[in-house]
Amino acid sequence: MENIDLVILAGGKGTRIKKFSNSPKPIIKFNGLYFLDYLIQNYSIYNFKNIYILAGYKGKQIKNIYKTRKFNLKNINVIIEKKPMDTGGALFNLKKIVKNNFVLVNGDSILDINLDNFVKKKLGNNLIKIALINKKFTIIKNKLGNIILKKDKIIYSDYSKYMNAGVYYCNKKLLKLIKNQKKSLENQIIPDLIKNQKVSGEIIKNTYFLDIGTPYYLQRSEKILKKTFEKPAVFFDRDNTLIYDKGYTYKLNDLKFKKQTLEAIKFLIKENYYIFLVTNQAGIAKGLFKEKDFFKFQEVMRQKMRERNIFFNDIEYCPYHPNAKLKKYKKKTNLRKPGNLMIKNIEKKWLINKRKSFMIGDTLADKQTAKKSNIYFEYISNKLLLQVKTIVKKIN
Q1: Which residue is catalytic, options 5, 237, 314, 366?
Q2: Which tens digit of pLDDT belongs to each residue from 134-184?
Q3: How far is it, in rounded angstroms, from Cα 333 to Cα 338?
Q4: Which is the catalytic residue, given 239, 245, 293, 314?
Q5: Which residues contact 42 (CB under 8 A, 6 or more apart)?
Q6: Average pLDDT, whole number, for the chain?
Q7: Average of pLDDT values for 88-104?
Q8: Domains of the chain and any CATH numbers
Q9: What's the confidence (pLDDT) of residue 393?
Q10: Residue 239 among the catalytic residues
Q11: To pair with 214 at 20 to 30 A between CA atoms, which of 23, 66, 173, 221?
């Protein structure tokens, strides 16, 4: 994936569901997690450069929640509009910020979509590409509910069985058309672009689509989200577990996956496991390399994994050490293994079936972390693929 940003529209008042919740739709809680948590989890596995939330109604509540949160090492940037601008006008706030093409998604719906594939084809002279889904996935009357593809272009049709799924791949040039005025993306901006043949589309054969914008689906969302997002997890140590350890490994030239690492992760994803990385990085505290070096290393590691269509769902790291050379990193903390705060942090953000979860590492500290978290543990073997297959069979 080229440099692409993720933009989440989270400015609506949720008028249709107001009697059920006083919170903005994106931060209604289901199973103890905000709806935005599920949404960001769904999309943050892709290699986005930046993640932006465009907030409006009670936007300060959203900003207070996400201003310090990270997903897959990515900061969440919350931009609050000064006055109601609707879905199109809200994009005006991005004009001086976004420098890349971007994926735009509605903050009250989730689509099962492979975004790597969705953005693979160049936009050409199109300013927007729309994800289309079969109407059977929702009873909600969609503002772009009668559209079809004709030679890769979006046109209107009364006989369409497809509808807009609220996921768009946008050319950064689109922002040049956005003025500082209230305007609807779906009712005004996109229809004008369709008339000018500037909108393409792709039919997504998805396994799930959920829009919480009506009382009917809002009341069913807790069960739907639990069924879709609750999974067992594997917690991996990094150095000398997934990659060869050169001793405080941070140089890009030293990045080398251990035997069967990628195959094992691919198997686990296919078996519907979350993949989490929990790693001590004392080299930061000791001044051997900087946090930005760690981020760069992880970014390259992530890119190499995406080439094989595999990924980490989330990453937690500890840059602290009680004997740190750098004062800002000198402290005792349960974040550092054998403490288990990294795992606890992940558990707060994800629906995890702990009974079927496990951890793999190479040190006693890893084993102690797993024990404190009530998670099955094994030391890394030289046949990781066979090892994880055996553990999955054993736990299940």
Answers
A1: 237
A2: 876 655 555 677 787 888 888 888 778 888 899 999 999 999 999 999 999
A3: 10
A4: 239
A5: 110, 111, 112
A6: 91
A7: 93
A8: 4-227 (3.90.550.10), 233-395 (3.40.50.1000)
A9: 96
A10: yes
A11: 66
Structural contact between residues 56 and 125, judged by C-beta atoms closer than 8 angstroms: no
Distance CA 174, CA 189 (A): 10
Per DSSP bridges, beta strands 101-106 and 199-203 are: unpaired
51 pLDDT more than 60: yes
CB 119 within 8 A of CB 169: yes
Residues 6+ apart with CB under 8 A from 239: 245, 249, 279, 362
Secondary structure, 3-state, the chain: CCCEEEEEEECCCCHHHCCCCCCCHHHCEECCEEHHHHHHHHHCCCCCCCEEEEECCCHHHHHHHHCCCEECCEEEEEEECCCCCHHHHHHHHHCCCCCCEEEEEECCEEECCCHHHHCCCCCCCCCEEEEEEEHHHCCCCCCCCCEEEECCEEEECCCCCEEEEEEEEECHHHHHHCCCCCCCHHHHHHHHHHHCCCEEEEECCCCCEEECCCHHHHCCHHHHHHHHHCECEEEECCECCCECCCCCCCCHHHCCECCCHHHHHHHHHHCCCEEEEEEECHHHHCCCCCHHHHHHHHHHHHHHHHCCCCCCCEEEEECCECCCCCHHHECCCCCCCCCCHHHHHHHHHCCECHHHCEEEECCHHHHHHHHHCCCEEEECCCCHHHHHHHHHHHHC
C-alpha to C-alpha distance for 30 and 186, rounded to whole angstroms: 27
Residue with tokens 């750098």: 326
**What CA–CA distance (Å, rounded) separates 365 from 388?**
20
User: Model's pTM, two decimal places?
Assistant: 0.92
Two tokens at 214?
Answer: 């009506």
Tokens of 156: 């209107």
